[in-house]
Amino acid sequence: MTRATHARPAAADTPSRPRVWLDQHLHSLAFSLGRVLRKPWATLLTVAVMGLALALPLGLSIVMDNLRHFTGSVQQSREIGVFLKMDVAADAAATLAGRLRARADVAAVEIRTPEQALAGFRQGSGLGEAIDALGQNPLPTLLVVVPQGSDDAALAGALEALPEADLVQHDALWRRRLDAWLGFGQRVVQVLSVLLGLGALLVVGNTVRLDIQSRREEIGVLQLLGASDGFIRRPFLYLGVWYGLGAGLLALGLIGAAGLALRDPLAALSASYGSAFALKGLDALHSGVVLVGTILLGWLGAWAVTGHFLRQTRPTET
Fold first, then answer.
1. Hey, is 68 helix, strand or coil?
2. What are 10-69's pLDDT values in tens digits?
3. Residues 139 and 26 in one domain
4. Suppose 204 and one of 3, 48, 215, 301 were both cysteines; which one would form an S-S bond, judging by CB atoms 3.0 to 4.6 Å apart?
5. What is the DSSP letter of 75?
């Protein structure tokens, strides 16, 4: 009984495996942070290079998203103009407009009479006296059709087949070209993201490699004492995490500063075109995703370098 009583405190003093695992990670986290803070200029240089490399594709991606939002919000680009023949009367044009409104692929139809078109042309061109000299209105009735679905080309083809239609004006070609340019721009952003992300990965790897070289003898002693690769690698992995976190925060700060610098000029430019378009930045969710990505990038760079070093310096069994 006495021996059992003395054995219990010894078992109670032994920390559990989860507690040991947590203590080791907390120690590595604090140790790596101390290494970062003891070399402020080297840390700042590494973080600045990574942050600039990550801010460029991130900013381009935001620009492309805003361009897609802007072009998608221009409703006039989807309108199809149907110029009716001169002999189509007003009541026949109204009947045709009613038939078109009943179609499932038509959202709205607006009738612009020759008188309305002439008044608008007179006001916009300033050629009122020349128009009055014509003696009669040369403009036809115009139906402005707004498509309901995404297949504007099919609707435009159906409108061209109408016997009352004389000319169908549809600006689908420039929108297809715009979509192609936007798709090309998005691919350029993806390529730049991969290349600059790889550059940031190499920056982290080189910085961690220099830190490993400065502790080469210490690592050799730990290996001789039987320390596992995971124990030796852990502080360097957290070092890469700190670099990635700093680079992500710097990249988000640069994007935010650029957005503030461009907000007022863009608002003035949009107002000059009668638009209320405003630049959209990153919300909290996407900012968190960016930080997670940069942290993972720093971790991967440190993991690759430390893994290569440990394979090269692992003691050989005799």
1. helix
2. 444 566 777 777 777 777 777 777 777 888 888 888 889 888 888 888 888 888 887 776
3. no
4. 301
5. G
Burial classification of residue 23, based on how many CB atoms lie within 10 Å of its CB (0-12 exposed, 13-18 middle, 19 or more buried): exposed
The total number of structural domains in the chain stands at 2
Helices (H) and strands (E) in the chain, counts: 11, 4
Q: Is residue 216 included in any domain, yes or no?
A: yes
Q: Does residue 1 belong to any structural domain of this protein?
A: no
Residue 223 buriedness (CB in 10 A; 0-12 / 13-18 / 19+): middle
Question: Structural domain of residue 210, as residue ranges?
Answer: 20-73+177-313
Which tokens hold the place of 86? Answer: 């001169």
How is 76-93 classified by DSSP, letter by letter? Answer: GGG-EEEEEPTT--HHHH
CA distance 247 to 58: 12
User: What does the alpha-carbon distance between residue 212 and residue 220 come to, in Å, rounded to a whole number?
Assistant: 11
Q: Report CA dihedral (224, 227, 229, 231) to the nearest 10 degrees.
A: -140
